Amino acid sequence: MSARAMSLVGCLLGGLLAACDGGVAEPTPDRAVDVGPPADAAPDRGPPDMAPPPRDMAPPPPDMAPPRDMAPPAPDMAPPAPDMGPPPRACGSVYAPPEVVGRLMGDTLAEVSGIAFSASRPDVLWMHTDSGGEPVLYAVDTAGNARGEVRLPVDNEDWEDLAAADCPDGSGPCLWVADVGDNRRSRDDAAVYAVPEPVVAGGEAQRVWTFPVEYPGGPVDVEALAVAPAGDRFWLFEKVDAPVARVFGHPGPLVDGEAVELDEITRINAPGLAIENGRSITAADLHPDGTRLVLRVYTGSYEYVFAEGADPARGIADLPFVQPRTVSIGPLSEPQGEAITYDPSGRDVWTVSEDPELRGGQPLHRYRCSD
Questions:
Q1: Are the CB atoms for 114 and 178 separated by under 8 Å?
Q2: Mean pLDDT computed over every residue of the chain
Q3: Would you say residue 3 has pLDDT above 80?
Q4: Which of 118, 133, 178, 348 would staple 129 via disulfide (CB 3.0–4.6 Å)?
Q5: First to last CA, the chain
Q6: How large is the greatest C-alpha to C-alpha distance in the chain, in angstroms?
Q7: Which CA distances in Å does 339 have to 51, 293, 359?
Q8: Whole-model pTM?
Q9: Is 89 helix (H, G, I), strand (E, B) or coil?
Q10: What is the per-residue pLDDT for 87?
Q11: Using the 8-state DSSP alphabet, how is residue 319 labeled?
């Protein structure tokens, strides 16, 4: 996004937040916090503003090497805990204003554009940078400290989003990378990658699934990826400065290396404020149990609760029928928010922003379920 556009978004957000009684609170001082206990989910749906179009969708883990510009990581990441606690349960209430729970160390992640929690370590997040960055996944703890990295044997043309889900063959947990950014709408090499999540420090990924994608009608600029928890389907959300955005889905089955034209699943009224780039979708994440979806736009974060009993494919196809609820407007401390994730408990949402000035040290935000 241009500096002028980001300045406009910031100024308008500042005025709106100042005018709102009880609006988004300024982040609290930096501190690390623990994942909260689970709670029951409650749907929050309403009528859409538009009608939908027709609906239609281990190998050994690699090692990690310590990052270059970040603070020194711990010598090794511990092996996965045998008991990850109770199954994820969605937030049954509203989300509290964002808290700053840590800051990213150094400037390696100044252009962070993807975030996802580890499937085996609830205190570890994975992140990556976008176009021009290294083809590397960086592990940080929930205070923002470096824990390690893994290099993928592919290019980072324009990595834009990250998800955690099962591997395509069901062999274990994978990290899914969306190399789909296309500001000029000219790419013919967009792809989604899946790599088994590393568990110890050192090296390069030894196994990568590659899913080349094409779009009906030609190239599309995309920055948001959602992957089914079972790792058998994925969806991409169009980034467009317009009231309506398209949603594309892989028709399945997922075949390593096979280029596929995605289906246009539906079109949604993009959430966010109706200002320049205010409704551009920059990130997405499916809830760990597949019952809801969060979307990040430049002016805030929004959650869609699927109908009871709907699987991710049905829930995403029905998005035009769901009134999203606001997780947060802004916050102002995220001038270019392009990354969002649920935590492993399923109760809280986490976000982080790029730093337009490339200095690094961005705050890591947590939005606690208030029930």
A1: yes
A2: 84
A3: no
A4: 133
A5: 36
A6: 54
A7: 29, 14, 18
A8: 0.81
A9: coil
A10: 77
A11: G
Cβ-in-10-Å burial (0-12, 13-18, 19+) of 255 comes to exposed
Beta carbons of 270 and 297 less than 8 angstroms apart: yes
Task: Using pLDDT thresholds of 50, 70 and 90, give the confidence band for residue 73.
Answer: very low
Percentage of the chain exceeding pLDDT 70: 76
Q: Residue type for 164, please?
A: A
Positive or negative torsion for Cα 236, 128, 335, 285: positive
Q: Which residues of 148-184 are buried (b: 16+ CB within 10 A; e: fewer)?
A: bbbbbebebbbbbbbbbbbbbbeebbbbbbbbbbbee
Determine the Cα–Cα distance for residues 171 and 296; give it in Å rounded to an integer. 30
Question: What domains lie within the chain, and their CATH numbers?
Answer: 3-9+41-78+98-367 (2.120.10)
Q: DSSP string spanning 273-316?
A: -SSTTTT-EEEEEE-TTSSEEEEEETTEEEEEEPPTT--HHHHH
Task: Compute the Cα dihedral for 148, 151, 152, 156 and give only its sign.
Answer: positive
pLDDT > 90: percent of the chain:
73
Residue 225 belongs to what H/E stretch?
strand 222-227
Q: Cβ(229)–Cβ(257) under 8 Å?
A: no
Structure tokens that stand for 39 in this block: 């709670």
Sequential DSSP letters for 135-204 = SEEEEEETTS-EEEEEE-SS--S-EEEEEEEE-TTSSSEEEEEEE---TTS--S--EEEEEEPP-EESSB
Burial of 59-93, coded b for 16+ CB within 10 Å and e otherwise, reads: eebbbbebbeebeebeeebeebeeeeeeebbbbbe
Using CA atoms of 188, 218, 300, 328 in order, give the dihedral in degrees to the nearest 10. Answer: -90
> Could you write out the DSSP letters of every residue in 15-57?
HHHHHSTT-PPPPPPS---PPPPP----------SS-------
204, pLDDT greater than 60: yes
- Give me the phi and psi of 116, to 5 degrees please: -155, 145
As given in the structure block, the two tokens for residue 182 are 């296309």
What would the mean pLDDT of 117-125 be, rounded to a whole number? 94
Segment 287-311 shows an average pLDDT of: 97
The helix (H) or strand (E) run that includes residue 8 is helix 3-19
Q: Tokens in use for 122? A: 């609830």
Distance between CA atoms of 285 and 163, rounded to whole angstroms?
7
